[in-house]
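Example record used in the benchmark description.
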Amino acid sequence: MTERPPFVDPHAEFAVCHFCGQTWDPTEVNGFDLSREEDYYPDMVPVCPEHAGGCR
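Model output (structure tokens):
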């Protein structure tokens, strides 16, 4: 099993992009931080390679 970031279920069969809903094999998952400045922990969500740069 491939190690995944903590914001992706380790048993998921596919990842789902937070922005567009695209699914892909979760062997490589990028994240986008939705947390606010005052949040102590980051609020990471999975994003597809198209949105990995935070273009939305």
